[in-house]
Amino acid sequence: MEQACRTYYRTIPAKTLITGGEPTLDKDYLLGLVTGLHERAFSEIVLMTNGYALGTDEQYVAELEAAGLTEAHVDVKAFSDDLHRSYTGKSNQPVLKAVETLNASGIKLLVQTIYMPGLVEASEIEQIAQFLASINRDIRYRINPFVPIFAFEKVTRRPTLDEIERAYKLASQYLPNTIISRSCYREYPTPPPQKTWITVYPDLTTKRRGMEDQMQDRLSWLSHTRLCESKEDWQKEAWDFTLRHSLVGISETAARQSGPGEGKGSGSIKVKFPLSLHELTKTRWTDLDCCGPTTIEAVMKRLADHYGDTFRETILNTGGYSDGITIKRSFNVYLNGMNIKNLHGMQTEIRGGDELIILSWVSGG
Fold first, then answer.
1. Which of 171, 187, 203 is at the close of a domain?
2. Model confidence at 96: pLDDT above 90
3. Do residues 162 and 27 share a domain?
4. Which of 23-37, 122-136, 212-226 has the lowest mean pLDDT?
5. For 150-181, how does the pLDDT look when each residue is reduced to its tens digit (9 = 90+)?
6. What is the mean pLDDT of residues 179-197?
7. Cα 88 vs. chain centroid, distance in angstroms?
8. Are residue 69 and residue 158 in the same domain, yes or no?
C-alpha cells in the first residue's frame, strides 16, 4: 500500500479510512495495521465499525488508541434493544458501551444511524440522541438515509426529505453537532474537492480510482447480481447512484406506500428470498398466483409445500399446521417494505401486486 501511495501520489496521504466488512473482528490484524499506518506517518487513521467488539473487549479501545487510531465512526443501528436484536441478532449493549469508552478516550468519535422507514424512524433516532447527549453533548451525530440501491435486500423505501429533516430537528435539540448526509454544508462550510483513492487488488495490482470509477463498478455489479425488471428500473438505479454521489441522497417526495390489500385484488405476489435461502430455492425471487386476498401464513405454507421440508425447517416454527406457524427468529418478513411484526403478523392480509421479502438477520458494520 505504501508503494502504491508513493507511485500515484508521490507521498503518503494524510488520511486513511479502515472499513469492511467489520474490521474489528480480527483484532491482531487491525492493531498491526493501525500501528503500521501510524509508523508510516498517516496523520489521520479512521476506523468505521459497528462497535460490537469494542464494547465486549475492555482493552480494545485503549489498544487502538495506543497503536495510533485517531478517529472512530460507530454505527448505532437502534436504541431499543429488542429492535436491535431483531435487526442484527445481537444486543446493542456492547455498542452503547463502546460509544461511552470511545468518548472517554482520546479518539475522535462520530456516531451514525441509518433512517429506515418503518424500522428506525424519528422517535428511535431521538432516543439515540438523548443517550449520546447524556454522555457528551458535543458528540458528532450523523443521520444517513436508507438507500435501497446499496442494500442486498430492499427491506424498506428511501426516507423522504421531510422525514429526515424531522429526525434532524429532534436530534439536534440534544446534539448541536448533528448532521444529515444530504446537508454536506453542515459538515463542510466549503465542500471539499472530489477525491481519489487507491484500490489494492488481491493479486497486488493497484489502481487509482475516483467516483466515476466507483459508479461504473457499482452498475456493473448490479447488472450481474440483480434482475433488471424493466428499462425504467435500471434507469432509476443509475439515477439513485447519481443522487447519492451528489450527496442529495433523499427523494424530494415520498413514493405512495400502499397498505396491504389497498386497491389490489387478483394477480401475482412477488416473493424475494435472501442469499441464505438461494441454495434451497434455486432462485432469488418467485411469483405466486393469487385469486384474491389471502394471508402471509397461507403464502408461507405454499412456499414450504413447494420448496420442501428443508425450507420449512429452516424458516418456520411449526406445531402442526392446525396450530398455526410462525417465522423463526433468524428471519424477518416484509410486506411492501413494512415488517409484518408491525402489521398483523402471519395474519396480515396480502393480495396480488404486493411484494413480500424474506430477510435473514443483518450483521456486521
1. 187
2. yes
3. yes
4. 212-226
5. 666 667 888 887 888 899 889 999 999 888 86
6. 51
7. 10
8. yes
Which amino acid, one-letter code, is at 215? M
Q: Are 346 and 295 in contact (CB under 8 A)?
A: yes
Cβ(175)–Cβ(111) under 8 Å?
no
Asked whether residue 170 is domain-assigned, the answer is yes
List strand residue ranges (DSSP E) for the chain, in order. Answer: 15-18, 44-49, 71-75, 108-115, 140-145, 178-180, 197-200, 206-209, 267-272, 285-290, 294-295, 316-318, 325-327, 331-335, 338-339, 349-350, 355-360
Pairs from 14-20 (Cβ < 8 Å, separation ≥ 24): 14/42, 14/43, 14/44, 15/42, 15/43, 15/44, 15/45, 15/46, 16/42, 16/44, 16/45, 16/46, 17/46, 17/48, 18/45, 18/46, 18/47, 18/48, 19/48, 19/365, 20/48, 20/49, 20/364, 20/365
Report residue 69 as a C-alpha cell.
487510531
pLDDT digits (tens, 9 = 90+) for 261-315: 444 457 899 998 887 788 889 988 899 998 888 999 999 999 999 999 999 999 9
In a domain, 192, yes or no: no
> Which pTM value belongs to this model?
0.59
Residue 135 has pLDDT above 90, yes or no: yes
CA distance 37 to 12: 10
Domain boundaries, position 166: 2-187
Q: In total, how many domains does the chain have? A: 2
Instruction: Confirm whether 225 is domain-assigned.
Output: no
Question: 349-350 and 316-318: which strand pairing?
Answer: unpaired
pLDDT tens string 239-249: 344 433 333 33
For residue 46, tell me if it sits in a domain.
yes
Around Cβ 180, how many Cβ atoms within 10 Å? 24
76: domain CATH number is 3.20.20.70
**Coil, strand, or helix at residue 142?**
strand
Name the domain boundary from 167, 187, 207.
187
Read off the amino acid at residue 164: I
Q: Which of 49-53, 189-193, 351-355, 360-364 has the lowest mean pLDDT?
A: 189-193
Residues 289 and 176 reside in one and the same domain: no
My answer on whether 154 and 41 are in the same domain is yes
What's 328's domain CATH number?
Answer: 3.10.20.30
